[in-house]
Amino acid sequence: MHGPTRRAGIGKVWFVRFVWAVAAFVIAALMIGAGIAQRTIFEPPPAEATALPAGEEEAYTVIDGEVLNLFPGAQTLTVEGEGTLFAAYGRTADVQAWLADVPYNHITVDGGEFRTRVVEPEIDPAAEEPADAAEEAEGTEAAGRTPVGSDLWLDEFQQERRLSTPLQLPEDMSVLVASDGTAPAPADITVTWPVDRSTPWAGPLIVGGGIVLVAGVILYLLGIRHARRSRGPRRKGLPLPPTEPIDLAVEGRKKGVISSGRRKAIKARRPFVVVPAIAVSTLLFAGCSSDAWPDLSVSATPSPTASVIVPEGQQSPAVTETQAERILARISTTVAEADAAADADLAASRLAGPALAERQTNYGLRAQLPEQTPLAPIPDRPVEIVLPQAFDEWPRSFMTVVEASDDTTVAPTIMVMTQADPWSEYKATYIAGLEAATLLPDLPATYVGAVLAPPDSPFLRLRPDEVAAAYADLINNGENSEYWNDFDTAGDLLLPSIRENQQQRLDQLNQTGSGTSSLEFEATAGSGAPMALTTLDGGAIVAVEVRESDIVRPTNADAVIRLPENPAVRALTGVEQSATGFQTTYADQLFFYVPLEGENEPIRLLGYRSNILEAKVLE
């Protein structure tokens, strides 16, 4: 009674499953095709390359930071041309200052388009030159200034014919492109930005399509199964003769064998239908890289750190840490070459002030006294502290502390480097060794910098321009000095060594002078300008020069002063005896920590260095 209705319902079920299987196949094909298309025909190019417009035939071209940051991501600069190509980058203000006296091409962004214009000189260097130099240069073509090796650059590159380098510069930095400073700058300049090629939906689409494909296969197989079950009873065969009985047991066994074998065959074929779909999905899944999936990682919450507050209106630090290390390495190399050749002119290219004066004297002594030892070399690593002056103009300075890498018995070296103008190199002006167990005050971070305290600053315990004279008075008068309580004399190792040295010379004079000569000691402030960089607590590290003089005079008209035990003075004066006497001067390079005015803390000597400076015959 219900047979036709039941068969109709079963037929409808397997038909619906066939429809859903076809729909699944279509959806799977669309999903997998879309995922593959994202990784192939629709994948963006690897980079965005733009050729910058060429300017006039000037010796320098500046690429503004806005140009480099027109698109997100790191930049790759490519320059092509003849001969040696040069590129460097630095703060835009520094690059413009270095080019202030010459015309140059400036590439900027205007309304989303690149434009190149010629920037005329802001200053006329000829106006600063003496008249004879201007006349000598008249009618001749001035040689270009090479940009190679300038201390202003944060980094520089040189290659032949083609220069390509990756960059990642902020907007306040610019790139300088040139050849040799005389020939026109290369005009073929290209900047390339990387393009985000990630396709976060490619992986999910391909894998999801594979899952839908497997579901479609399952629906298809279920549809086939139901279609077979939905068939009506088979047509009966011809009636058997009544004289031929049927053995039901045998027939049942035969049917059972045939039925069982058919079911096994069907079960054995099903896995081979499903496996290809799973294999295809697995292969597609394996071909998807990490950028084909959404980034579901949760970034860790950073732990709070101490905030560094830059005072309002403070200018940029003169150098970065990497820049300071490169400058120090150049100074160390140049001075080592000068020491080996005793070349004072070469030393003057990287030294100035008291640091240069002591080496000039040492070179003179070595020329006449083969046994005279050279001064200690300038170490360049490892750099422990870099404290740059926060200043956008010139002159600008920075202080550094360098450990002795190969000798633990040698005290760390503290130095001050100064750059006079944008076209000059940094020169070491003060060099000293830190005292044992010296505790430096808290210093500003390198990327913040320190303000230069003016020489007449009234906010310190002593003004920077008074520190040298006050310490000289301390040497001359000891505890009777009016500045005795201003200095930490208990932790000062230089004062007792000065007194001991003076006593040795007095004893030597008494043994050889026989009462016919006198010895006087006098300390005065040196000619070097003080350098004071502020610390976090409002105090300052102050570098000054103090000069100690020994004056030997005869005590009667018939006496003469001889120098049998002082070959250095004989070499510097050129005489072995004098009826008027001698004056020998030693230069002390000193570093102090000067606290704020009103603080109970005294002024502490951080480091010092003392060497003979000059000797002369008294008139």
From TrEMBL:
GO molecular function terms listed in the Swiss-Prot or TrEMBL record: transferase activity
Residue intervals of the DUF8094 domain: 316-616
Acidic residues biased stretches: 126-139
Alphabetic keyword roster: Membrane, Transferase, Transmembrane, Transmembrane helix
InterPro entries reported for this sequence: DUF8094
Region (Disordered): 126-149
Membrane-crossing segments per the record: 14-37, 201-222, 272-293
Pfam families: DUF8094 (PF26366)
Protein name (Swiss-Prot/TrEMBL): Glycosyl transferase
Organism, scientific name: Microbacterium lushaniae
Highest classification ranks of the organism: Bacteria, Bacillati, Actinomycetota, Actinomycetes, Micrococcales
